Amino acid sequence: MPNYYVGWGLGSWATYTTFVNPYYVPSATTIYNYAQPIVVESFVGSATAQAAERGPAEPDADTVALELFDEGVAAFYDGKFEAALNKFDTAMHRLSGDPVLHEMRALTLFALGKFQESAAVLNALLATSPGMDWTTLSGLYGDIDLYTQQLRKLESHIESNPKDAAALFVLAYHYLVTGHLEDAIELLADVVELQPNDTTATQILAALTADDDQRQTPVSDQAATGKAVDISRVMASKKTEDPDQADDDQPKTDLVGKWVATPTGVTITLEVTETSKFTWRAEPKPIDGKPAAEPTELSGDVLAGGDSMILNTEGQGAMTGRVESRGADQFRFIVPGGPPDDPGLTFDRQK
Questions:
Q1: Which of 75, 109, 285, 286 could form a disulfide with 84 if both were Cys (CB 3.0 to 4.6 A apart)?
Q2: 109 located within any domain
């Protein structure tokens, strides 16, 4: 049983073993460990609030980091990309939980033609966070023609290096931002073929190419709305092979309630409320006579679309997966991008 269901919620994404970032290469000058998904924190808001409470005293490290970030954005706008990267890298020591800072680093690396480094950042970021839209990205450039030149440079690089998966991944990101969906899908398909262990690309591609009646909105798009849907729409369903069977007759599961899954080594309890809130509790079992690790509990909003469900938290990112009904009192939860033989988690209703 893969432990990424368990790793989510153990305080660190480091145990999310199915996540692979094939573009990250650590070095002596590494600024951040992109070998794992970025754990998003509400850092900017909390730092600003704390600074306001303290009043006009001497600036602390958080305030300085925010100022460095602003200076980096200004340098980026003026086309001074080396200076911008230096500001962002320095601010990273205090703002490592801010997804906007990571995305600005990725954009700056793209602007400098460092495509593999940009891909490493984007791969870890898009695993848990929404990306920018075109309005936001275009507003970062003082001269939008400069962005076009940079994009053409990336496209030209790929023409000469069609098997550069990192560059393909970066271009797919930019095509998604600029609204070229079909082109992005083609690029992501190439990325997955070249890098089958790229779980982020696999998940995004699966979401974009799902059948219309089961289409999953990418986790980045759904999380960006920040809005939980009416829980009555969060229904697990399973299509039968009988084309004459009406949708109303398909097996369905109302996910509101308390559920328990017992994969090897852990007991997972999931509770979903009528107000689109959830609680996820992972209780590891003793192994080889050793005491069990401390249980971990997470909570947040349930986001849904079609047969997909996202459990979205404020501090530990999000887990997205497909829900498949096995009747009124049982369903399977399957994470996209897992191994082909992954059985998922089977949850039984607790009455």
A1: 75
A2: yes
CA distance linking residue 292 with residue 89, whole number of Å: 39
Based on the fold, state whether residues 170 and 225 are members of the same structural domain. Answer: no
Going by C-alpha positions, the residue among 14, 316, 197 that lies closest to residue 3 is: 14
Which range, 6-20, 218-232, 328-342, has the best average confidence (pLDDT)?
Answer: 328-342
By residue range, what is the domain housing residue 245?
219-349
| 48-to-51, 58, 88, 100 alpha-carbon distances in Å | 5, 14, 18, 15
The residue type at 228 = A
Find the mean pLDDT for residues 8-22: 49
Give the CATH number for residue 112.
Answer: 1.25.40.10
> Residue 277 belongs to what H/E stretch?
strand 277-284
Considering the domain boundaries, does residue 3 fall inside one? no
Q: What CATH number is attached to the domain comprising 305?
A: 2.40.128.50
**What distance in Å separates the CA atoms of residue 43 and residue 73, rounded to the nearest whole number?**
18
